[in-house]
């Protein structure tokens, strides 16, 4: 085949190129819209107070780190640390308890397994505010207010249902024939679960873990109600930069960027699993 | 130090107590009326530190005054031995948190911020300890030094019920106006308009699409009354004895019409729904000519760290109306929690937190102009500090406090039913500003709904 004919064969129709360019263009616009608040948050955190809201905005400026220096105090760093401890603990415990429960519900044959699944959702059937006073009164009696374990337990009640429902869907998508093959080879139920099923569900596990982490990391309501000074978490600490006389925009944006950063980095690190997990089951194979 | 997961162990007794609490959730009302424990501390001996090792916790809003208290706790400890702790929350969150702590008699905080519009409700519910026995006990209080009469009348009046004092004020937010002198002068105004009618006329002259005439914050039940009372309108017929709502009177409707026109026609974009900090920012950007709000907020527009046009601002009193001049006042104090465990130490804390020395320090070092002591407002250094060009902020502050105290027109704000009524009023005003409702319809519907709210709360009214 001559080089000219190869060239002709590889040429794409003009309409395809235009369509593709249009798609890229629309994607870029969508990205700008979606990411603008994030950009604005970071931009505000790096501008001196006087320039923060100048119109028209200065898009090219020498960044200053004053706002970050101002929030790097125990007043914010301790709550940030509390957020990390509570969120990691909640995520780990939710997965340890919820994943086997989801597996049992997926593979077991109970008389009322549908009803059981539904009841696990009961903690999410009302807005958090409905549970606020009951939790406060119970915790007051237990002397659990303003404790990290108190927060972990309250987040567990919400996260467990999330883990069970999400992981059950992933387990349902794994063919039982693979497990049966492992049984024939002499594997136990736990061994099969650990060596065969769970590795196949790794993307689902990563997705579920991220959602669990985010639920605890971003919670504001329970942290406000059930803490006072020692166990306060990041979101409440950020809100406290809203001074009675004025809002400290620079500190709010610097603290907001700092609280967003770990989640962004974690999501980037596991993005491969995240995308696989989010699309799993979207197409019936 | 933060409590950690190692404390997860729970005794059987704790679990049983928790279960009992869960069962008792529906008995919340009963829990809230629990009798306060008796004071247990010994009287103060002169020169001694009887409170050494005692911790007193304060819950208040996030504000520079609170930062000042936090940073000066060593003074308190040196004088009394008390170890103080100041927990501060954003104001919106404080409202929820303080209500919860007091209603459940948790006793976690010894001293709390008395929130102005909750005064009637909290005192009525017994959630604030009467302080007279502490004031009048010579072992606990040096009356000459503490000097109760030094508190400006308008500031202490809301916390005095039935001749008893339930809290001491530390913040008196008074509505004033901050304005762009250059823009008004350019339009031919050598001084700020004295009446709301004149203000409207000035707005028509000065407002442009680029620079709005007016901006204010979104707390409508705090801003609109400046107009409402000045035009002869009222919230209630004769608070606190006759709470018949008066929102459908011609005066209230006229005031609502004037105010909503100011916001909708001459206001900055979003006027009526902007947070105070956003309104301040609009002034900083030079996007509005006039800002009406409390002293605590309005003075922020001259923060030279945040604006390059601070020298163009001036301050004055709010305009008058046909019925007179009614600038608004919001006072916040410190109350003693009846469920607290260290009442005498809490009293020492309150005395220190509102003392002349502390308040002077706050005024001089922490930008606290909304002070409540006459001696501080008349201190030469304070007066000098709060002079901005020709504007005398301390004189404005003291003037409003005295006027509100002597006039007694702020009584509407401390009736126990005010918070839900205020919220409903804010909805009505916002709906008119946003063009969703006509002013007549909104005010009539407000009247009907408020009657319902009051009747639901057991208030007898004569519609």
Notable features of this structure?
heterodimer, A: mainly alpha, MetI-like fold, 2 domains, 0% strand, flat, B: 463 residues, alpha+beta, D-Maltodextrin-Binding Protein, domain 2, 8-stranded mixed β-sheet, two-stranded antiparallel sheet, 22 helices, 14 strands, 44% helix, globular
* Beta-strand fraction estimate of chain B: 15-25%
Structural class label of chain A:
mainly alpha
Low-pLDDT runs of chain A: none
Backbone structural class of chain B: alpha+beta
User: Overall pLDDT of chain A, averaged?
Assistant: 87
Most extensive contact = A-B, 45 and 58 residues
Do you know the CATH topology of the largest domain in chain A?
MetI-like fold
The value of Rg of chain B in angstroms is 23 Å
Straight-line distance between termini of chain A: 39 Å
Overall pLDDT of chain B: 89
How would you sum up the global shape of chain A?
flat
Identify the CATH class of the largest domain in chain B. Alpha Beta
In words, what does this structure look like?
The complex is a heterodimer of chains A (285) and B (463). Helices cover 73% and strands 0% of the residues of chain A. Chain A is mainly alpha-helical. Chain A has 2 domains: 3-66, no CATH class; 67-279, MetI-like (MetI-like fold). The two termini of chain A are 39 Å apart. Chain B has 463 residues and is an alpha+beta fold. Chain B folds into 2 domains: 40-172 and 330-384, Periplasmic binding protein-like II (D-Maltodextrin-Binding Protein, domain 2, 3-Layer(aba) Sandwich), CATH 3.40.190.10; 173-327 and 413-456, 3-Layer(aba) Sandwich (D-Maltodextrin-Binding Protein, domain 2). Chain B has helices at 12-23, 28-32, 64-71, 73-80, 91-103, 119-124, 132-135, 143-146, 153-156, 181-186, 196-206, 220-230, 250-266, 276-284, 295-298, 343-353, 356-365, 374-377, 380-385, 393-407, 418-433, 439-456, and strands spanning 55-61, 83-89, 111-114, 160-161, 164-165, 167-180, 212-216, 236-238, 242-245, 288-294, 313-317, 329-336, 387-388, 391-392. The longest helix of chain B is centred in the last third of the chain and has 18 residues, at 439-456. Chains A and B meet through helix 4, helix 6 and helix 7 of A and helix 1, strand 1, strand 2, helix 5 and helix 14 of B.
């Amino acid at each position: 085949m001559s080089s000219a004919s190869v060239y002709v064969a590889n040429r794409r129709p003009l309409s395809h190129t235009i369509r593709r360019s249009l798609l890229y263009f629309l994607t870029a616009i969508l990205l700008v819209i979606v990411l603008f608040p994030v950009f604005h948050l970071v931009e505000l955190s790096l501008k001196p107070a006087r320039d923060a809201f100048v119109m028209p905005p200065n898009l090219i400026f020498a960044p200053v780190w004053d706002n970050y220096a101002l929030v790097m105090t125990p007043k914010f760093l301790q709550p940030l640390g509390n957020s990390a401890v509570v969120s990691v603990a909640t995520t780990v415990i939710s997965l340890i308890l919820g994943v086997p429960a989801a597996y049992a519900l997926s593979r077991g044959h109970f008389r009322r397994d549908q009803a059981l699944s539904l009841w696990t959702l009961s903690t999410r059937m009302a807005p958090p505010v409905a549970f606020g006073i009951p939790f406060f009164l119970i915790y007051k009696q237990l002397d659990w207010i303003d404790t990290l374990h108190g927060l972990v337990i309250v987040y567990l009640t919400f996260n467990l249902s999330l883990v069970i429902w999400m992981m059950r869907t992933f387990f349902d998508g794994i063919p039982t024939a693979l497990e049966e093959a492992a049984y024939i080879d002499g594997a136990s139920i736990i061994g099969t679960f650990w060596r065969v099923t769970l590795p196949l569900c790794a993307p689902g596990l990563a997705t579920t873990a991220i959602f669990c982490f985010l639920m605890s990391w971003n919670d504001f309501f329970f942290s406000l109600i059930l803490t006072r000074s020692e166990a306060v978490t990041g979101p409440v600490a950020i809100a406290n930069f809203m001074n009675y006389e004025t809002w400290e925009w620079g500190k709010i944006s610097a603290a907001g960027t700092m609280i967003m950063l770990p989640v962004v980095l974690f999501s980037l690190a596991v993005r491969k699993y995240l995308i696989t997990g989010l699309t799993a089951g979207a197409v019936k194979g | 130090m933060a409590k950690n997961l190692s404390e997860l162990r729970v005794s059987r007794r704790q679990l049983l107590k928790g279960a009992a609490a869960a069962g008792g959730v529906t008995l919340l009302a009963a829990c809230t009326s629990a009798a306060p424990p008796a004071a247990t501390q010994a009287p103060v001996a002169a020169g001694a530190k009887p409170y050494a090792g005692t911790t007193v916790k304060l819950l208040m809003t996030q504000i520079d005054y609170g930062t000042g208290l936090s940073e000066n706790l060593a003074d308190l400890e040196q004088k009394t031995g008390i170890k103080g702790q100041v927990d501060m929350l954003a104001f919106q969150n404080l409202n929820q948190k303080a209500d919860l702590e007091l209603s459940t008699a948790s006793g976690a905080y010894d001293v709390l911020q008395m929130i102005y519009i909750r005064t009637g409700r909290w005192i009525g519910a017994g959630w604030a300890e009467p302080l007279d026995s502490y004031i009048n006990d010579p072992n606990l209080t040096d009356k000459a030094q503490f000097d109760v009469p030094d508190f400006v009348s308008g500031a202490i009046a809301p916390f005095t019920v039935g001749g008893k004092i339930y809290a001491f004020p530390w913040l008196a937010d008074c509505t004033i106006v901050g304005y762009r002198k250059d823009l008004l002068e350019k339009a031919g105004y050598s001084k700020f308009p004295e009446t709301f009618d004149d203000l409207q006329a000035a707005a028509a002259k000065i407002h442009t699409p680029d620079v709005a005439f007016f901006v204010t914050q979104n707390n409508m039940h705090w801003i609109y009354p400046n107009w409402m009372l000045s035009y002869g309108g009222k919230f209630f017929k004769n608070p606190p004895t006759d709470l018949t709502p008066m929102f459908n009177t011609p005066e209230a409707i006229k005031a609502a019409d004037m105010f909503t026109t100011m916001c909708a026609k001459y206001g900055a974009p979003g006027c009526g729904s902007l947070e105070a900090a956003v309104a301040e920012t609009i002034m900083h950007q030079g996007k509005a000519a006039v800002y009406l709000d409390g002293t605590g907020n309005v003075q922020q527009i001259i923060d030279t760290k945040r604006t390059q046009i601070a020298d163009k601002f001036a301050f004055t009193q709010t305009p008058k109306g046909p019925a007179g001049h009614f600038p608004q006042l919001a006072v916040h104090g410190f109350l003693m929690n009846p469920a607290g465990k260290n009442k005498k130490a809490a009293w020492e804390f309150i005395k220190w937190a509102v003392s002349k020395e502390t308040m002077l320090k706050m005024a001089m070092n922490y930008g606290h102009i909304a002070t409540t002591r006459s001696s501080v407002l008349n201190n030469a250094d304070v007066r000098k500090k709060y002079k901005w060009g020709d504007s005398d902020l301390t004189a404005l502050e003291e003037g409003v406090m005295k006027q509100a105290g002597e006039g007694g027109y702020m009584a509407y704000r401390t009736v126990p039913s005010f918070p839900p009524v205020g919220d409903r009023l804010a909805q009505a005003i916002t709906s008119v500003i946003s063009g969703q409702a006509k002013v007549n319809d909104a005010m009539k519907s407000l009247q009907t709904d408020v009657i319902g709210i009051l009747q639901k709360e057991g208030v007898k009214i004569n519609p």
